[in-house]
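I hope you will forgive my troubling you with a question about protein structure. Here, with my thanks, is the record as I have it:
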Amino acid sequence: APVALALSRLHEKKGIDTLLDATVKLPGLYVWIAGEGPLEAELKAKAAQLNLEPRVRFLGWRNDRGALLAASTFVAFPSRYEPFGTVMVDAWAASRPLVATDAAGPAAYVSDGENGLLAPKDDAAALAAAMRRVIEEPGLAAKLVAGGRASYEGGFTREVFVRDSLAFYTKVAAGPR
């Protein structure tokens, strides 16, 4: 069965309620939500109200992101507000397809259809459609993984960070021009 993984604080900004609404539209999808936060009880109640309890697991705070990513089919990143989003980089580094919303961070880094899929914020139908595509569209998951891996290797590895940091410090050390 397909498993969507959401690595998220349980907060209004993170859009987990939209993920739950989208999950209703995908009867074969299981969702793992790893995180804690002030909306935990409310989100669990919503999952129960939507009859999602058999398919949605609230995992609490976890220190085994790598294992969760490896066991998932794709990463769901439904944030309303996200200035960057390390979850995006986590998905790419773990070679998992990414389905995100068009919050500022993901919108700046995700090329829809290339290294992830983007859905409008707060649009459960669009989020469900994007998740369905990853599950059902032949070759799409592999394409997104390849694009995500290229994005990770091109901009987020330790080597890239060191290279860019050294270039920045060299420029600063050289003084004003």
About this structure: The mean pLDDT is 97. The helical segments are 16-24, 40-49, 65-71, 86-93, 104-109, 124-136, 140-155, 158-174.
